[in-house]
Design goal:
Number of strands: 6
Structural class: alpha+beta
Oligomer: single chain
Helix content: 10-25%
Length: 137
């Protein structure tokens, strides 16, 4: 759930939202097999998942900032099949809760490692960043 953590960290850093006001939940996931060799290991599958981020105690102007930050993050980082939607629950002039719904894609790549926790074809492996990481940020 690397991409979900990236969005959370981005909003905390640039939106000045305290971590205590966040809750992130993955609500569904589908693994799409790829099984192809890379220069350093094996690209096993793409994990396409739906997630929800709840942000509490947000004012109307903060809502606009969060909306623009999310738009910019997706504009710069969106991959195929990824989606974003935003909803807010208002109490008087104050927005009490923002719900961000996202569909994200993480690529799962493994590399040989004698200490790895994954056994495959009589060899030990560990999960690693894909070799062309710039495509996955």
């Amino acid at each position: 759930m690397k991409r979900l953590r990236q969005i959370r960290d981005y909003l905390i850093e640039y939106g000045n939202i305290p971590k205590r006001d966040f809750a992130c939940h993955v609500i569904g996931s589908e693994q799409i097999p790829v099984e192809s060799q890379t220069e350093t290991g094996i690209w096993l599958f793409d994990d396409i998942y739906d997630a929800v981020i709840h942000i509490e105690d947000v004012s109307g102007s903060e809502y606009e900032n969060i909306r623009l930050l999310l738009y910019e993050w997706f504009r710069e980082n969106q991959q195929e099949n990824e989606k974003l939607s935003l909803a807010g629950d208002f109490i008087t002039d104050v927005l009490s809760l923002i719900t961000v719904s996202v569909t994200l894609k993480d690529s799962v790549h493994i590399v040989p490692d004698p200490e790895g926790k994954i056994e495959r074809d009589r060899q030990r492996w560990r999960i690693a960043d894909p070799p062309n990481e710039e495509n996955f940020i």
